[in-house]
Amino acid sequence: MIEWTEILLRLGLASLFGALIGLERERKNWSAGLRTHMMVAVGSCLIMLVSMFGFSDVLKMENIGLDPSRIAAQVVSGIGFIGAGTILFIKKNTIRGLTTASGLWTVAAIGLATGSGMYFAAGATTVIALIILVVLQRIEHITSKNFREMTMKIVIDAEDEGQVFLKDILSKEHLKVKTFTIEKKQNDFILEVIFDQINVKNMDEIVLELNNVPAVKEIYWTKA
């Protein structure tokens, strides 16, 4: 049997590892924050302890054989239900929360590793996970902030014959139009243009050109 001090050590370390990753998610106001990550880690740790040591009495009986990995294996698949709850469908083609969901899955693995006594593996994984969540996110923002998919919405007076200007703007060689839709609402046309691989500077140039067109009432754009 495992000593109670060792049980407390493993549960405590699992809580700490989960808290470190949870703090990073909490800082960004995600639904799965500090407490969620701690609960997942400590729960996984306890399940691992039960899987390894909870059936010691049964194993003493003759002709009884148990696989201690079977209970722990259910955590890996079962954690997907919690992870799915953190994924948000903001709008068409836009999903948020995948990193948090994968983080919960990793925290569950860290809890299992801690519960099995693999302290170095659990600690190293926690450090690597924090590097991925904090450091690599900044690098990702630097490399992707210049070129990405952007959506522009333009409101035009339907009675004005100013729609011709769109042909000149959209036919420019450096602009890659992914989709183009137009909708009629009362006395206005609402145009939605999704540009692929366009930078902020080009978007600003388009906005400046559109501001000089009397038919244009409103312009706004967002990053994908």
Molecular structure report:
56% of the residues lie in helices and 20% in strands. It has 224 residues and is α+β, with helices and mostly antiparallel strands. The protein starts with a helix and ends with a strand.
Blueprint of the fold:
Layout: H1 4-27, H2 34-53, H3 56-59, H4 69-84, E1 88-91, E2 94-96, H5 98-115, H6 119-144, E3 148-157, H7 165-170, E4 177-185, E5 188-198, H8 200-211, E6 216-223
Antiparallel strand pairs: 1-2, 3-5, 3-6, 4-5
Helix pairs in contact: 1-2, 1-5, 1-6, 2-4, 2-5, 4-5, 5-6
Concise account of the structure shown:
With 224 residues, this protein is α+β, with helices and mostly antiparallel strands.
Helices and strands, in order, run as: HHHHEEHHEHEEHE
Largest sheet: 4 strands, antiparallel
Strand order of the largest sheet: 4-5-3-6
Q: Percent of residues in beta strands?
A: 15-25%
Termini separation:
54 Å
Shape: elongated
What is the count of β-strands? 6
Task: Name a few traits of the molecule.
224 residues; alpha+beta; two-stranded antiparallel sheet; 8 helices; 6 strands; elongated
